[in-house]
Write a structure and sequence with these properties.
By secondary structure, the chain is mainly α. The protein has eleven helices and no strands.
């Protein structure tokens, strides 16, 4: 499916604000792909579709995930069912947008929590989601600058910011986020 056709189809399922965010993530992912010598088209595709299931109503997320055989841990089910939009998004991208590229689908799955063993594309999408031009939170400029210098350091900073935000909310931290952060720290010490 052509990129412009994807945007037209997404506009039927996402609010204008969410669609603009997705376009911003796609463009940012393209930029990061160029910066880190990665396939620009894969980054563009994963970026535009990363939130394709984001506006499935909260009360339907778990039912849809269960129906599709998507496993969810206690953190997701009890505290943050909205995180289910990531694995659901990979299924939607595959079934409704014809995406078969496993790297793109895996990047969509991990864009909310991160995790251990992320590919370069998955790191690009995770960061693009955090720093696209529509994002405005304390620390986003530092994160944008870090993303231009060193992708792993930027990802580590993004994990730290995410964990601090979750701690301030007294919420549950997804184990994949902790695992991803720990992995980067261990890589840095070898």
């Amino acid at each position: 499916m052509e990129h412009k056709d994807i945007i037209v189809k997404l506009s039927q399922h996402l609010s204008p604000k969410r669609l603009q965010h997705s376009i911003g993530v796609s463009r940012t992912a393209e930029s990061l792909a160029k910066r880190y010598d990665y396939d620009v088209m894969q980054a563009r595709l994963a970026g535009i579709l990363h939130d394709c299931a984001r506006e499935i109503p909260r009360n339907q997320l778990w039912l849809k995930a269960k129906k599709l055989g998507i496993a969810a841990d206690d953190v997701v089910v009890r505290a943050e069912p909205v995180l289910l939009h990531a694995p659901l998004g990979a299924v939607v991208a595959q079934k409704e947008y014809g995406v078969t590229d496993r790297a793109v689908l895996a990047a969509i799955v991990s864009h909310t929590t991160g995790g251990r063993g992320m590919t370069l594309l998955a790191k690009i999408i995770y960061l693009a989601d955090a720093i696209e031009p529509g994002r405005s939170f304390s620390g986003v400029d530092e994160l944008r600058n870090a993303a231009e210098q060193d992708l792993n350091q930027a990802l580590l900073l993004a994990y730290d910011q995410s964990i601090k935000y979750i701690l301030d909310k007294h919420s549950l931290i997804h184990p994949d986020t902790v695992d991803g952060r720990n992995e980067l720290l261990l890589i840095g010490k070898t």
